[in-house]
Amino acid sequence: MQEAVIVEAVRTPVGRRNGLLSETRPDELAAKVLKEAATRGGLSPEHVEDVIMGCVSQIGEQALNIGRVAALIADYPTEVPGTTIDRQCGSSQQAVHFAAQAIASGDMDVVVAAGVENMSRVPMGSTYKGTERSEELTSRYEMINQGLSAERIAEKWGMSRQQLDEFSLESHERALQAQQEGLFEKEIMPLEVTTPEGERTTVRDDSGPRKGSSLEKLGSLKPAFQEDGVIHPGNSSQISDGAAALVLMSRDKAEKLGLNPRFRILARSVVGSDPTMMLTGPIPATEKVLKKAGLSIHDIDTYEVNEAFAPVPLAWLKETGADPKKLNPHGGAIALGHPLGASGARLMTTMVHELERTGGRYGLQTMCEGGGMANATIIERLN
């Protein structure tokens, strides 16, 4: 089998809902990051054999196969196809998996895996308006809101609101520290945008991290999903806008084109999990991917576990025995935001740059997904 490698990884800044990116169409936002990924990687788009785009709410400006539309807007040759996939929050992590599988099998040599979501312009849940779940499904499973799933996880693992808020505050503090030290600069492409006020400006930073947050402020927020609950907006991921893209190749093709294979995709997993406790999937996905790679959790230098809600990474830590210092070292979705279809590629991009910065060898990424699923990926730095 061919070895699938990462040649380039780049993302946009992540914008708050109705913020600086809200006036940019998602198909145009995705096109910008596709173009930037090829440019930074030194890749002529004519070599790209497919674009695989993660996007959850495929309606409105995100409809009609946004993967193909974005590739055309990005001036990729018309011969380059594109497709759009939905594995809920892990959509663009799954795009990386599909790209790696196509390369490993020998079907393709160059694939761009990407993701996009502009939740300001295409609200979450807009694809499901006017309909209800099948009774054939609800008679078999208790299908509840993800926030209620987070409540049940907190209860099962005995997490107090104080613990959840402390984790959330640390996510913001880590993200703010990373911004202050310029640690996101290499991975983020600056964007010229029109603001909601109609002004032109350049966005260089994620807008989610909050200065001046405190346990007292978090403690004043009302529970969002149940009256006596512990989950509230401050310990949940932020609704956001953003895009990210990675260029994957066979190692042989990268070397023939004179490009730098920076990481290899060492192992991949995807699992189904309890659709009611739908956010616990990263735990078995991690166990499965580590077994495939022949590694232990302690061999991994950095972990990116999506912070859909604070109980998710905290339960993952308890079950895996991972080092909390290695977990989301520059904050996660609670601080940086969670543009659904883009988040998988965003986490992978951040992990690539962090491993290069620190000289780490292995990175592990995992994400919970709606309906009870999870992806996990292990990458290995090559140089």
UniProtKB/TrEMBL annotation:
<feature type="region of interest" description="Disordered">
    <location>
        <begin position="195"/>
        <end position="219"/>
    </location>
</feature>
<feature type="active site" description="Proton acceptor">
    <location>
        <position position="368"/>
    </location>
</feature>
<dbReference type="GO" id="GO:0003988">
    <property type="term" value="F:acetyl-CoA C-acyltransferase activity"/>
</dbReference>
<keyword id="KW-0012">Acyltransferase</keyword>
<feature type="active site" description="Acyl-thioester intermediate">
    <location>
        <position position="89"/>
    </location>
</feature>
<feature type="compositionally biased region" description="Basic and acidic residues">
    <location>
        <begin position="197"/>
        <end position="209"/>
    </location>
</feature>
<dbReference type="InterPro" id="IPR020617">
    <property type="entry name" value="Thiolase_C"/>
</dbReference>
<dbReference type="Pfam" id="PF00108">
    <property type="entry name" value="Thiolase_N"/>
</dbReference>
<dbReference type="InterPro" id="IPR020613">
    <property type="entry name" value="Thiolase_CS"/>
</dbReference>
<dbReference type="InterPro" id="IPR002155">
    <property type="entry name" value="Thiolase"/>
</dbReference>
<feature type="domain" description="Thiolase C-terminal">
    <location>
        <begin position="262"/>
        <end position="381"/>
    </location>
</feature>
<dbReference type="InterPro" id="IPR020616">
    <property type="entry name" value="Thiolase_N"/>
</dbReference>
<dbReference type="InterPro" id="IPR016039">
    <property type="entry name" value="Thiolase-like"/>
</dbReference>
<dbReference type="Pfam" id="PF02803">
    <property type="entry name" value="Thiolase_C"/>
</dbReference>
<comment type="similarity">
    <text>Belongs to the thiolase-like superfamily. Thiolase family.</text>
</comment>
<keyword id="KW-0808">Transferase</keyword>
<feature type="active site" description="Proton acceptor">
    <location>
        <position position="338"/>
    </location>
</feature>
<feature type="domain" description="Thiolase N-terminal">
    <location>
        <begin position="5"/>
        <end position="252"/>
    </location>
</feature>
<protein>
    <submittedName>
        <fullName>Thiolase family protein</fullName>
    </submittedName>
</protein>
